[in-house]
Each structure stands twice: as structure tokens, then as C-alpha cells.
Design the sequence.
């Protein structure tokens, strides 16, 4: 099976602020994860958009940064500038957010799977 890329506009992911839009491109739809997770997607945050501060209970969520630059806010509140090739790891029970404070789109892969 071959699927074609299709963007879904999502607003306020995780309580996101700024212009608040994220473009979500499902890599594997939730129903095809067969209960092992709820998202495997490419996300694109335009400048000024964020994924808000939120917690994952009984889930992990790694981010793989594809392009652009962003500020990753970790569970302890520390802020790390992330670029293409960086991996952000969110463990079960942890909080996190990511912000695009740059001038170009921030694109990354996110996988939310059960622990």
C-alpha cells in the first residue's frame, strides 16, 4: 500500500500558543498502530507556533528534528536549541513542549507509543 502525504491543520496542540497552527502529516494512522500508540507523524510548526507544555502518562514520545530550528523545553524546564538531526526523548510521566521561535518552518517526526 502507498499513501500520499496529506497535511491536517491542528490548532493548540498540547495547549500550544502563538499562531498555534501545526501541520500534521500522518506517517502511520492511529488505527494502523493497533493499540501500540496513537501518533506517528511528521509535524511542521511555522514560525511563532508551539506545541504547548503537556505530559505523557504511560507513553513515550521521541522527536526527530528534520529541518529548521526550535526551542525544546524538557521536563525539568531547561531549554535546548534543537536543529536537524537532533533527537528529543520524552519518557513516561514527563512534561515537555517545543517552540518555533525562528524564521523558518520547524519540521520533525513524532512517535507517541505506549510504554
Sequence:
Amino acid at each position: 500500500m502507498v499513501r500520499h502525504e496529506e497535511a491536517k491543520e491542528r490548532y493548540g496542540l498540547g495547549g500550544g500558543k502563538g499562531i498555534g497552527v501545526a501541520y500534521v502529516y500522518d506517517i502511520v494512522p492511529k488505527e494502523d498502530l493497533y493499540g501500540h500508540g496513537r501518533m506517528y507523524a511528521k509535524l511542521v510548526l511555522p514560525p511563532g507556533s508551539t506545541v504547548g507544555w503537556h505530559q505523557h502518562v504511560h507513553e513515550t514520545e521521541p522527536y526527530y528534528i528534520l529541518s529548521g530550528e526550535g526551542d525544546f523545553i524538557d521536563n525539568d524546564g531547561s531549554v535546548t536549541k534543537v536543529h536537524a538531526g537532533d533527537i528529543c526523548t520524552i519518557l513516561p510521566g514527563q512534561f515537555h513542549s517545543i517552540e518555533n521561535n525562528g524564521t523558518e518552518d520547524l519540521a520533525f517526526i513524532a512517535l507517541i507509543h505506549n510504554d
Observations:
- The chain has one domain: 7-114.
- The CA atoms of residues 64 and 87 lie 5 Å apart.
- The first strand starts at residue 7 and ends at 11.
- The chain has a mean pLDDT of 91.
